[in-house]
Amino acid sequence: MTEAATTAPQPDPSAASALPLATSLAEGGLAARFNTPEGVPAFAVRWQGAVHAYLNQCPHAGGPLDFEGQVLESSGRFLMCARHGAIFEPDTGKCVGGPCRGARLTPVAVHEKADGSVWPGAAG
Ligand code: FES
C-alpha cells in the first residue's frame, strides 16, 4: 500500500496553479479582463461564436477600451472604446470609425477549451 502511494501520479504543480482567463464567455456579453504574462492589461470577448483577445489599449490615446468590462457597442457589431467612441472590427481589431480610423488593436493569443474556458496562448 505504501508503494502505491509513492508511485501514484502526482499533480503537476504548474498545471495546478494555472487558471483560465475566463470559465466561459457569453456571446455579446462582458469581456474578460486579464493581464498578459508581461503584465499588460488585455481583454477577451466572444463575437459570432469565436473568442477574440486584444491588449486593452486604444490606439487613439492609449487608454483602456472597456467600461467595467463592456466593450461591445449596443448593436453588438463592433468593439467600442468607452473614451472617445472609436469602433473596431471584433475579429480583426481594425478601427473602422472614430479618431484612430485605420489603426489596429494589438491581438493577444488565447484559446478556448471544449468546456468553454478561455486560456492564455495559442492552442497547443
Ligand atoms: S482613447 Fe479610444 S477613442 Fe480615444
Automatic annotation (TrEMBL):
Keywords: 2Fe-2S, Iron, Iron-sulfur, Metal-binding. It comes from the Bacteria. Residues 18-120 form the Rieske domain. Coiled coil: none annotated. One of its GO terms (molecular function) is metal ion binding. Transmembrane segments: none annotated. This is Nitrite reductase/ring-hydroxylating ferredoxin subunit. The lineage of its organism: Bacteria, Pseudomonadati, Pseudomonadota, Betaproteobacteria, Burkholderiales.
